[in-house]
Design brief:
about 150 residues; alpha+beta; 8-stranded antiparallel beta barrel; 2 helices; about 40% strand
């Protein structure tokens, strides 16, 4: 009986370690899915199907994204040709954690033109927005009444 219990615990431990070392971990692309907020520029919404929305100044533009984690540095490509941006945008991609990332513009390729270096080179820092966090977004603004004592 004691050997059976030890065997069960050993099997569970082995499966847990195997899971952590293999495909059970989320890939960077999986962690990317969701809404990302930038303090000065566009907000981005990445979907599992490879589509992306850039939300800036009230306008929502739909495109596609590709994340190349094999390149050094890692690259993100945003295909925004079907919007008024009308270009494919290339970025150096760096994820600091599952809630923070940095995109640095590197190249732009307008439809019908050659790929050229981006005029914008400043790093764009993004933070992932948790829709359940009461401190993020509209739900963070609330009016509270001052408590009054009743005699």
């Amino acid at each position: 009986m004691k050997n059976r219990t030890q065997w069960k615990y050993s099997a569970v431990a082995f499966l847990s370690l195997t899971c952590l070392a293999s495909s059970c971990q989320k890939s960077e692309r999986d962690l990317l899915v969701g809404r990302w907020q930038n303090s000065s520029g566009p907000n981005m919404i990445f979907n599992e199907d490879g589509s992306v929305y850039s939300v800036h100044q009230g306008k929502r533009r739909k495109g596609a994204y590709y994340l190349d984690t094999e390149s050094k540095p890692q690259q993100m490509v945003l295909d925004m040709r079907k919007t008024e941006i009308n270009a494919v945008l290339y970025f150096d991609f760096d994820a600091f954690s599952d809630k923070h990332m940095q995109l640095t513009p590197t190249y732009v390729q307008r439809t019908g033109n050659k790929k050229v270096k981006s005029d914008i080179t400043r790093k764009l820092l993004f933070q992932k927005v948790d829709p359940n966090d009461p401190l993020m977004g509209v739900s963070s603004f609330s009016a509270k009444a001052t408590p009054t004592e009743t005699p």
